[in-house]
Amino acid sequence: MKLKNTLYTFTFSVIILFNSYNVFSQYKVTGQIVEKSTGTALSFANLKYNDNNTISDINGIFEFNSSSKELSLEITYLGFNKYLKSYNLTEGENDLGKIEMTEDSKSLNEVTITSGKFKRAIDEVTVSMESLKPDFVEKNNTINFEDLLEKIPGVSFVDGQANIRGGSGFSYGAGSRVLVLYDNIPALQFDSAFPNWSIIPTETIEKVEVMKGAGSALYGSSAMNGVINILSKYAKKTPYFKYKTHYTFYDAPSDPQKKWWSGMNPNKYGITTVFAQKIKKWDIVSSLFLEDEPKGYMKDCYNQIGRVTAKFDYHVNDALTIGLHTNLNAESKVTFYYWLNDEEGAYVGTDDSYSYQSKKVAIVDPVVTYIGKKGIKHILQSRIYYVSNYVDKNKSNYSVSGYGEYQFQKNFSDIDLVITSGIEQTRSRTDAELYGDTIFLATNTGLYIQAEKKFFDKLNLSFGARYEINSVQGPKSH
């Protein structure tokens, strides 16, 4: 019995010593990952240390234990150069301090978020993507967004509708088949289901992403032919201010008999201002656009447009951000539907085809974003969309719409898996004088989920599913 107790004591001592060796052979490593130029923390950066993986938290801070004194550390973050360095660790805690990451100028503009609602290199997405560079709009001096559409490869603009690769961009009475997003929220006018191009603030565009393929799993039936995502400027610590004027005049037709005017040529002119800056916890982006066409190239026609936009985002803390984005538009114009003839009346309308229109649009977007630990993101975004469209000769319509979406996203960086899911609903009420002064109520509700997994650093797979319910209530027809 004494020998047996001695063996138990010896075995227990060996176990204690072995465990003590393991504990004391652990080397604790801490640090923070930041952007070199601004000092901003890089949340959820991927770290590979020896044969293990981890990610930084919302503040870019990381902490792990290494069983080896020799440490090989590799840090990757989308749009930044890879950080690779070896360390010789000492016993106890090893604080690596602030590790500064530098932007990769070659790949920074090739980061996309449209395909899966999260940042990803454009060459890793599973659908065909086109990304316009941030300075593309500026170099082309674009005033109206429809002019920019014609410069995107694979996109055509026909009768006010965008088409991608020759697909059906619009089914009359059913809505668009190319979904237009502005800052990831549908920019379609809900009562007619097509984009109102004149209200898109071209002056604040930072980037345009075009997904040339069906995106109906994440975005719904309006995205069966593709998605055009317009991303606005974001505030930085350095203030940004732009002031621009433009002037256009129309030359006389090559056929002299079609020139209906005398004296000054038809013309239009306008001004644009943009301001953006990060002030303490506030991100502010605002713009003003005014354009007047007092004498258009069509006789007795004119067009006046005014637009004000403002984006206010407040960072409550490192995890929670609340925002309020607004877009106010007013437009007044006269146009005609039928020309007088194909000779001297080519740019002159018939007496009964002239129409006066006064349109006012107000858009308010409350947004809440919460980024939790370990790559979890919650987004609650909504939109109130009001349209007052007065047209003479009893063709007016008025509508108010509401859009809401809750999105949940989890990034399993250690296994290169991202899961995105959510629920969204759109409700609209339209008073259409054009259709006998009737009221239409429309509701669209969708549930979606999508998973994207990367294998062997070469193969990317994407799987998504969506359940959608549509309903329209209006007067019965007999």
Write up this protein.
By secondary structure, the protein is mainly beta. Strands 21-22-23-24-25-26-27-28-29-30-31 form an 11-stranded antiparallel beta sheet. Strands 10-19-20-15-16 form a 5-stranded mixed beta sheet, with no helix packed on it. It has a 4-stranded antiparallel beta sheet with strand order 3-2-5-6, with no helix packed on it. It is built from 4 helices and 31 strands. Helices cover 8% and strands 53% of the residues.
SSE arrangement:
Blueprint: H1 2-24, E1 27-35, E2 46-49, E3 52-55, E4 61-66, E5 70-76, E6 83-88, E7 93-101, E8 111-112, E9 120-121, E10 129-132, H2 136-140, H3 145-149, E11 155-158, E12 161-164, E13 170-171, E14 175-176, E15 179-182, E16 185-186, E17 188-189, E18 194-195, E19 205-211, H4 216-219, E20 227-232, E21 240-249, E22 267-279, E23 282-295, E24 302-315, E25 320-336, E26 354-371, E27 376-391, E28 397-412, E29 417-432, E30 438-455, E31 459-473
Parallel strand pairs: 1-7, 15-20
Antiparallel strand pairs: 1-4, 2-3, 2-5, 5-6, 8-9, 10-19, 11-12, 13-14, 15-16, 17-18, 19-20, 21-22, 22-23, 23-24, 24-25, 25-26, 26-27, 27-28, 28-29, 29-30, 30-31
